[in-house]
Specification:
Layout (H helix, E strand, L loop, with lengths): L2 E9 L2 E8 L2 E5 L2 E8 L4 E6 L8 H15 L7 H12 L6 H22 L3 H5 L6 E2 L1 E4 L3 E2 L4 H15 L3 E5 L4 H15 L4 E5 L6 H10 L5 E5 L7 H7 L6 E4 L5 H10 L5 E2 L8 H14 L3 E2 L7 H12 L15 E4 L16 E2 L2 E3 L12 H7 E2 L4
Parallel strand pairs: 7-9, 7-15, 9-10, 10-11, 11-12, 12-13, 13-14
Antiparallel strand pairs: 1-4, 1-18, 2-3, 2-8, 4-5, 6-17, 16-17
Bound molecules: calcium ion.
Length: about 375
């Protein structure tokens, strides 16, 4: 089988109501969807992560100008060889960020081609399913212009609970005092049995993060995500073991060589590689193996369209709990509930939560079909 085309689709529609996290206002929802076409008529789909403030054109340019010329006429089954060649060729101007995001989108699309050609879901190709369903947690709780965040937060929590969620992740990083007040307000609203996580998106130093951890002990936070910037690995060390709250990070860590430092030095309780950002299936499988070797939990970061969500479910199916036991601490699905114009429509609404559980798609490849009408409707022509 040969690759005959690699198409980076840039989708970037504006939001009718922008929302804020600790680093700024998200005005549009962007996706960079990778389509790989083969000479056998099989098409594979992947996605590169676009953070809230990340222009999708950057990863698309990596694919268009750098990766595509390397991939034409190559065999998708050589996926690991291709990964290492893409990484090696982009090293002088890559290693992190959009370069690895781009490689991730390509890698997911290559695995999708392989799965579709063998008529198997990707988790079967990775070694099988440790689980066929996963508990999701609701990501949301962004700030809205002109609305009281405490009232909105309580209303939003009730909305997630009424849908069946048993776990929610709050956006914090808006100031220590404000965050502490917010965390206790939501805990009071949801009661003691709902799992609460918090995510500061790198807004603090270790002193401020320590104060939040200690003052929120009674609120029983399951994990604190990205309290600090990823450059401050020593700060992360300082925060571990202060309270029973787990310390988590990973959406801004790229590839096995970066993860090696975080895993081998024990900086984190929970690793959060994003399949669409940290290197796709080929690389994240290796990161998961390193996590297992250091007996560290892995809960992937997921924030994108339905393509990335479906691919992430394939990965989650194959993550070994650390450690395996009769009643292990299972990975969770980060299930983004924030505003998005096409997340579900792009995959014909093929993924949903039922009784608080999301099933792993069992169809070939990433397990869902892509709605080309949605791509057409939102696609920006950036390489004319
Ligand atoms: Ca996050």
């Amino acid at each position: 089988m040969k690759i005959v085309d690699v198409i980076p689709h840039v989708l970037s529609p504006p939001l009718s109501e922008p929302f804020a996290f600790s680093q700024g206002w998200v005005e549009k929802r962007s996706s960079m969807i990778v389509e790989i076409v083969t000479d056998e008529g099989i098409t594979g789909w992947g996605e590169s992560l676009c953070h809230g403030l990340q222009p999708p054109e950057i990863a698309a340019s990596f694919v268009q100008f750098c990766l595509k010329p390397m991939l034409i006429s190559r065999d998708p089954f050589d996926v690991e060889v291709l990964w290492e060649e893409m990484y090696n060729q982009t090293r002088p101007f890559g290693q992190h960020g959009a370069a690895i995001n781009a490689i991730s989108g390509v890698d997911i699309a290559l695995w999708d081609v392989i799965g579709r050609s063998l008529n198997k879901p990707i988790h079967k190709l990775l070694g099988g399913a440790f689980r066929t369903e996963v508990q999701p947690y609701a990501t949301g709780f962004y700030r809205l212009q002109g609305k009281d965040h405490l009232q909105e937060g309580v209303k939003e929590a009730q909305r997630h609970l009424s849908k069946g969620f048993k776990a929610v992740k709050l956006k914090v990083g808006f100031g220590v005092k404000s965050d502490i007040e917010y965390i206790y307000a939501i805990r009071e609203a949801v009661g003691p049995d709902i799992m609460i996580m918090i995510d500061a998106n790198c807004a603090y130093n270790s002193a401020a993060a320590r104060r939040i951890l200690l003052e929120c002990e009674r609120a029983k936070i399951h994990f604190f995500e990205e309290p600090l910037a990823p450059e401050d690995i020593e700060g992360y060390h300082n925060l571990r073991n202060l309270t029973s709250t787990y310390i988590a990070s990973g959406e801004n860590i790229f590839g096995k060589t970066s993860y090696r430092h975080w895993i081998s030095t024990g900086a984190l309780d929970i690793l959060q590689p994003d399949l669409m950002s940290a290197g796709g299936f080929t690389e994240c499988k290796k990161i998961a193996a390193m996590a297992q070797a250091w007996n560290t939990m892995l809960i992937p970061h997921v924030w994108g369209s339905g393509v990335g969500l479906a691919a992430s479910l394939q990965f989650i199916s194959n993550i070994l709990p650390a450690p395996l036991s009769m009643n292990p601490q299972e990975p969770l699905l980060e299930y983004d509930q924030s505003a998005h114009p096409f997340r579900e429509e792009l995959i014909y609404g093929a993924i949903s939560m039922d009784n608080g559980i999301v099933k792993i798609p069992q169809k070939p490849g990433i397990g869902v079909e892509v709605n080309r009408d949605v791509i057409k409707a939102y696609r920006k022509d950036v390489f004319k």
